[in-house]
Model the fold of this input.
Amino acid sequence: MPKIAIVDKMHQDGINLLKNNPKFECEVIEDISKNNLIAKLPEFDGITLRRGKVDADILAKCKKLKVISRHGVGFDNVDTKFLKKNNIKLLVTATTTSVSPAEHIMFMIINISKGKDFFDKAVRNGEFESIMHMNHQNFELSNKKILIIGFGRIGKKLIKRCLGFEMKVYAYDPYVKKNEIESLGGIKVENLNDGLKEADIISLSVPLTAETKNMINFDKIKIMKKNAVVINTSRGGVVNEKDLNDALNNKIIYGAGIDVFEKEPPDNNNPLLKNKKVILSPHAATFTQECLSKMSIETAQNLIDFFEGRVSKNSIVDI
Ligand SMILES: NC(=O)c1ccc[n+]([C@@H]2O[C@H](COP(=O)([O-])OP(=O)(O)OC[C@H]3O[C@@H](n4cnc5c(N)ncnc54)[C@H](O)[C@@H]3O)[C@@H](O)[C@H]2O)c1
Done:
């Protein structure tokens, strides 16, 4: 009977699916420290993984391991080279992890375009009358240009929402064909700089790779319009935090929405935490009741399907 480790908390719906399946023996491991994972994981045939880094030191001890089922779609916390070399499969929640992140991007865009919590505070603080002036910086989304960088699962959900707001959508993704973008109502941008020059809003939905690390740095931000807004819900490090903070402070761009950080949780002295031009969330783009439940079920089901020899090709990462 395969032994399964559920590494890190996940929604009870997914845990129940594994625990109630008599064909598996499973255990929840909440302590995701490296020492604990090295001590615990060697006895397991398969693991689910949310947070926690599974590096080569840990994997080298896991002689029985056949599969890792990621709770999510990013896999920068796993040593994929080791997995490939040792024929350990990597699965992701390919079908349930895009609606909530796309909605979260819209939440950030709308919040920034409508002045964050400024109005709410004004009403509560008795400043109703004092904001009846004509100098608000809020702006309409209609007719604004958004550049979606990374036109995968989330990008494809995001475009529909942006078109609903009558925005003009550009997409930069060298790996997606022009006709696929056009069939969804977007315009393919061949050169990143051209897109950055045109866009009012830039949203990133790319994996963290050697190619995407620091893809938005000071040089790229300098190309953007003065009114530009950058939204990063992909991975910390794709947007250089220091460069973004400097650019906002020097009014090179207008605002930003940041869900993911170079270091998570961010240090207290991370300057973005004090920057009023940024809306922040704690890597929470999937934190809806629906998404957390569905992701946990898909994570568990992927693992069950793997051991029963019927895992969907869409869920297997080509590493
Ligand atoms: N904040 C969150 O909670 C949260 C939730 C889900 C996903 N994510 C992150 O968002 C990323 C995207 O998710 P997805 O499901 O859309 O993934 P996906 O794999 O479906 O799409 C990623 C897209 O990025 C493109 N891409 C890769 N390198 C690129 C580059 N250099 N320039 C432009 N495009 C490039 C790929 O071609 C692909 O189309 C994930 O890798 C993950 O890191 C974060």
Summary: Residues 72-74, 97-98, 101, 149-155, 172-176, 205-208, 211-212, 233-235, 259-260, 283, 285-286 surround nicotinamide-adenine-dinucleotide (CB under 6 Å). The longest strand covers residues 3-7.
